Amino acid sequence: MSTVISKDGTTIAFDAFGSGRPLIMIDGATAYRATNPLNAETGRLLADEFRTYAYDRRGRGESTDTAPYAVRREIEDVATLVEDAGGGPAVIFGWSSGGVLALDVAASGLVPVSHVAVFEPPFVVDDVRPPLPPDYVERLDAANAAGRPDEAVAIFMTDAIVASPEDVEGLKQSDFWPVMLGIAPTIAYDGRIMGTTMSGNPLPADRWASIDVPVLVMHGIDTWPTLIPGPRALAELLPTATLKPVPGENHGTTADVLAPALRAFVQGA
Fold first, then answer.
1. Where do the TM regions start and end (predicted)?
2. Is the pLDDT of residue 9 over 80?
């Protein structure tokens, strides 16, 4: 493990693989290196061409956190990793809500970016599932401020994932429940990143309008049907975007699929 210090003093922990063009892998809500080995596995497969960073987003795993939270701080975290890699331009990849952060990184102008790739950004742009309640982030903040991380996790499960109460109870009985409680404060971070993009309305036309680099938008061929309209809407919105269904299901794929997809995308194949 290595670390860098972000602009606001937060320590960001990471593992890096290979050498070459920087590739920053951004996890979605709740995930980090210890719970998602796919970023490291992908980095090993791409080690001949890329220097891949698998890192713990602030407030998770072995990274620290600094209040108050702002999405810009997470963009600065990515900028610090790119600087560690030699300055870019970098390929930015993001899973789920981490893909939305990847888009924000590319649009920010703070990070030199050559390519952006996202996997199943969980946009809600129609009525195939209930939209995220407008007070979602406020309720998460209130639960965490009151010392009730279990309530924050339950809100995330039922409102964002649309899990049933029975699913939540099942999670409480699993070994993963303490892990979820430990990262509960960061769930609201991803709520802020998602913003209004899970409201059931069209995606904002201006949020990523400045992105002029190639964008690869992926979704699993056999994923949950509710997760396909969002990637399609993004690919239609961004002039430089390409939509690519890939083998995978249940909001995920494998490193054996992801690594060659990313390699071909950057090589222009």
1. none
2. yes
Q: How far is CA 15 from CA 1, 26, 85, in A?
A: 5, 13, 12
- Going along the chain from its start, the domains and CATH numbers come out as 2-126+202-267 (3.40.50.1820), 136-194 (no CATH)
Which tokens in the block code for residue 172? 């409480």
Q: How far apart are CA 169 and CA 161, in angstroms?
A: 14
**pTM greater than the 0.90 cutoff:** yes
* pLDDT bucket at 88, cuts 50 / 70 / 90: confident
Of the CA atoms within 13 Å of residue 137, those in its CB half-sphere come to 14
**What CA dihedral angle connects 56, 3, 147 and 174, to 10 degrees?**
40
- For residue 254, give every residue at least 6 positions away whose Cβ sits within 8 Å of its Cβ, in sequence order, or none: 38, 247, 248
> For position 27, what pLDDT does the model report?
98
